[in-house]
Design brief:
The chain has helices at 4-20, 25-28, 34-42, 50-65, 71-79. With 84 residues, the protein is mainly α. It is globular and about 40 Å long.
């Protein structure tokens, strides 16, 4: 299980990354890499390892880049990882 504060930090980071992302960002900001945003977002989730971490990385990348992605499902699913 993961600490609730770490889950909340991840949700906040994903929101910031999604809010500041736009399709032309890699062109407008040389050196910008989506992978760096994803790594920053998932950093608080140190308890996730192996394939599970990879799945969350993909979900976070989708949330950042796709404004139609289901954020409620993400919040529900990631919150379920937290200790009460």
């Amino acid at each position: 299980m993961i600490e609730r504060t770490d889950v909340e930090a991840t949700i906040t980071r994903v929101a910031v990354a999604a809010f500041t992302y736009y399709p032309e960002r890699p062109t407008d900001e040389p050196g910008y890499a989506l992978g760096e945003d994803v790594a920053w977002c998932i950093k608080p989730l140190v308890g996730l390892q192996g394939p599970e971490r990879g799945v969350w990385r993909l979900r976070i990348a989708e949330l950042i880049t796709d404004p139609t992605a289901d954020r409620r499902a993400f919040i529900r699913d990631i919150t379920s990882l937290a200790r009460e």
